[in-house]
Amino acid sequence: MAGSLIFSKYRDVGTAGSGAIYTGPCRLRQLTINTEAAGAPAIILRDGGASGGIKLQLDLQTNDTFSVNIPDDGIRFDTDLYIDETALDSVTVFLS
User: Fold this and answer.
1) Which residues contact 33 (CB under 8 A, 6 or more apart)?
2) With contact defined as beta carbons under 8 Å apart, do 64 and 16 qualify?
3) What digits encode the pLDDT tens for the residues 27-74?
4) Are 45 and 82 in contact (CB under 8 A)?
5) Distance CA 4, CA 28 (A)
6) 3-class state of residue 39 by DSSP
7) What does each C-alpha distance from 91 to 3, 14, 40 come to in angstroms?
8) Three-state secondary structure call for residue 95
9) CA nearest to 31, candidates 75, 93, 95
10) What is the pTM of this model?
């Protein structure tokens, strides 16, 4: 059986930005993303900082809300969960 959801992390990412969402090992279980009304909304999640391996990459539509559920054991991040985003209003990350 998969582990329990132990916390969620909210990050108001603004119009463009990057940085660590969580430092340490974790599993991504779900994302809720609100995109801006203009631009080319996209999100890249990496393990190991700005130059780490890409674990998830999404190109999204403008002015919308997306919920991405990760089945089974989620996506494992061994080092950290690093976000690189474009044209997003907010991202809510659910980890275990």
Assistant:
1) 41, 43, 58, 60, 65, 66, 67, 68, 88, 90, 91, 92
2) no
3) 999 888 999 999 999 999 999 999 999 999 999 999 999 999 999 889
4) yes
5) 12
6) coil
7) 22, 10, 16
8) strand
9) 93
10) 0.83
